[in-house]
Amino acid sequence: MARKIVILGAGESGVGSAVLAKSKAFDVFVSDFGEIDERYKKVLMDYQIPFEEKQHSEDIILSADEIIKSPGIPEKAPIISKLKEHNIPIVSEIEFAGRYSTAKMICITGSNGKTTTTLLLYHLLKRAGVNVGLAGNVGSSLAWQVAEKDFTHYVVELSSFQLDGMYDFKADIAILMNITPDHLDRYEYKMENYISSKFRIIQNLTVSDAFIFCCDDEIIQQQMTERSTPFQLYPFSVKQKLNNGGWLDNETLKIHYNEYNFSMDKKDLSLPGIHNIYNSLASGIAGSVLQIRKETIRESLSDFQGVNHRLEKVVKVRGIQFINDSKATNINSTWYALESMEEPVVWIVGGVDKGNDYTVLFDLVDEKVKGIVCLGIDNKKIHDAFDGKVANIVDANSMKEAVTKAYNIANKDGIVLLSPACASFDLFKNYEDRGNQFKEEVRNL
């Protein structure tokens, strides 16, 4: 009798898992506690995969041999607690997909910069002619691609939630960008739990595999002194010269990998800001490990177009530059955004706070911010942090109101920056919805 797999969540990840499980002749059932998007329903029906929505039928779910869980479902959800009581294994889509692919896996995680680095590296490998897929937190479901296309290489962005459900999966190249407080509401507000989750990226690495990591990050530095690392280490830094890995030498990016040496002028990078030097170094080292031609790496780092909703210039209105950084859902992302601004800023901030400590932004706000628009249902924490530190601090309950108030404060010069430092779920569907509404309201001015 076929083993029974139940998939919880019918988004891109869940439906992709269902397609792969069906192709491998499992008995598959998909359950979503919410409403399933029509396009995913159609796929499930086309593949003749039974599913349910707006409920979890416990009798069916608890009869599974294994569960594949969407990364969006928290560990504290009642159905997950029940499954644990019954000792039914729960894995992520990435763990499941990895069982059926022999492709090289280049996996990227970190609190910030992982999407840009993932897309930059994908761009680099495509340009080099590598047969590469884009998966994980961006791109299409890894499981779906393994079922229907299977590439020779994948660039996979991994969130901590995806890593939590991974056990035997192995990266060939693991990249860790940084670790700063984020999603602490999912980790019992314990930083050590979140750090452990991020470091799952190196589990199962072998002596021939590569670990690319930011050695400027104090948490990563500390962890590296405490962990066994029987694999190839390639650190990157903007603060110190390294013997191996990548670093910034005055105005020049340098990469040294075995006998391979690469250099590139900082001003030739397509993406501005110190955070993008980190992203470019990580991508360049991975390209070097994969033996991509230096010229291809240089071209890729100089013509990459960037990521939607990440420091995305929208338009100028009466001399005011509007910038959409809606993807900045934590303090560190917003720190990098403010750090890269060179004109006075009106900052739109707020949403669902994930345990933010705004004190780390005080110096940048003092130096660069002339007004704050608080966009959220509960703005008390932002007011507590910045009242008296910024001349203009106002509230808004909609994107239209936020854009109008920011425009009036900016008054013919400088920058209006949407960089919320918070999740979006109080007023918007997700950060994309928030960013798209921002762009629409700016264009309506």
Q: Overview of this structure, please?
A:
The mean pLDDT is 93. The protein folds into three domains: 4-91, Rossmann fold; 95-303, UDP-N-acetylmuramoyl-L-alanine:D-glutamate ligase (3-Layer(aba) Sandwich); 312-443, Alpha-Beta Complex (Protein-Tyrosine Phosphatase, Chain A). A nine-stranded mixed beta sheet has the order 7-8-6-9-10-11-12-13-14, covered by helices on one side. A six-stranded mixed beta sheet has the order 15-16-20-17-18-19, sandwiched between helices. A five-stranded parallel beta sheet has the order 3-2-1-4-5. Helix 6 packs across helix 11 (274-289), helix 6 (114-127) crosses helix 12 (294-303) and helix 11 (274-289) runs antiparallel to helix 12. Helix 1 links the parallel strand 1 (4-8) and strand 2. It has 17 helices and 20 strands. With 445 residues, the protein is of the alpha/beta class. Belongs to the MurCDEF family.
Topology:
Layout: E1 4-8, H1 12-23, E2 27-32, H2 38-46, E3 51-53, H3 58-61, E4 66-69, H4 78-85, E5 90-91, H5 93-98, E6 104-109, H6 114-127, E7 132-136, H7 142-148, E8 153-157, H8 160-164, E9 173-176, H9 191-198, E10 210-214, H10 218-226, E11 232-237, E12 245-249, E13 252-257, E14 260-265, H11 274-289, H12 294-303, E15 312-317, E16 320-324, H13 331-339, E17 345-349, H14 362-368, E18 369-375, H15 380-386, E19 392-396, H16 399-410, E20 415-418, H17 431-443
Parallel strand pairs: 1-2, 1-4, 2-3, 4-5, 6-8, 6-9, 7-8, 9-10, 10-11, 11-12, 16-20, 17-18, 17-20, 18-19
Antiparallel strand pairs: 12-13, 13-14, 15-16
